[in-house]
Design goal:
This protein is of the alpha+beta class and about 140 residues long. Helix content is about 20%, strand content about 40%. It starts with a strand and ends with a strand. Bound molecules: carboxymethyldethia coenzyme *A (CMX).
Amino acid sequence: MNLKNIDHIGIAVSSLQESLSFWETALGIELHGIEEVTEQHVRTAFLPVGDTEVELLEPTSADSSVAKFIEKRGEGLHHIAIRVDDIEAALAELKAKGVQLIDETPRNGAGGARIAFVHPKATHGVLLELCERKKE
Ligand code: CMX
């Protein structure tokens, strides 16, 4: 599959407002925008760093997988997202290789991206997101 780059790194936080004071004030990174992704039950804040971004993820409901993650493991690194050209092709290739997928078909992510997750059990402990964005 044609992997492009690390699109973003997701960090689970209890409060966007509180964590932004570190990323914006201490590191001086300019916030790219805040967006609610209703399908994923999260509010996200994107902070560009070089050719990738940090995505802060705040749960909007107790049912959110991010809320469960924080409850079980505390705030911290939640996932790594790799950008692909063709997400359906990437998922088909992983499925054919017997990789344990969370999503066999893409869902909607922040910024109009199409996303799908690979189970952390398949990746030796890291939740991996595949991410396809509209061509610029
Ligand atoms: N990174 C690494 N490991 C993780 C993890 C994460 N983010 N989340 C859970 N795990 C671990 C659990 O601790 C558990 O480990 P142990 O078996 O050693 O205890 C293991 O994965 C499996 O857990 P599970 O009981 O099968 O499943 P959970 O109910 O904990 O759900 C997961 C885990 C990954 C399947 C679920 O969170 C999921 O479907 N995630 C994809 C969707 C998502 O995370 N959306 C939010 C982001 C949206 C966005 O970026 O827009």
